[in-house]
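If your schedule permits, I should be very grateful for your opinion on a structural question. I would ask you to consider whether the tokens describe a fold that such a sequence might reasonably adopt. Thank you for your consideration; the sequence and its tokens are set out here.
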Amino acid sequence: MSRRRRHDERAHGPAAASALRPGGRLAFSTLAHHLGGAPAHPAVQHTEIGARTPDGEVAGMRRWVLQEQVWAKLLDEAGFTRNSTQTLPGGTGPRAAHALLVTAFRTDRSAA
């Protein structure tokens, strides 16, 4: 029996920062809003999104649909600088959503 590991989004930032060299860039994309158009969360909170496995089995997928300023705060707390976001337009349809491209740079903590 496999156990799902629980995690908090706040743990990922420091792990990513320590994995990068000083000056390294972190880049990722996420949903800019929920499927169907509901706004992104104003606090660190995940959303379970319905999905299907390749075999057609119903499954849930945890996504962090957070407002831009929430991502900026998390990255800042993790020691990243030059944080930026860019909204990339999505398609059309009932499950269409814009994507949020997030980039940040690791600082050299020894220089501080």
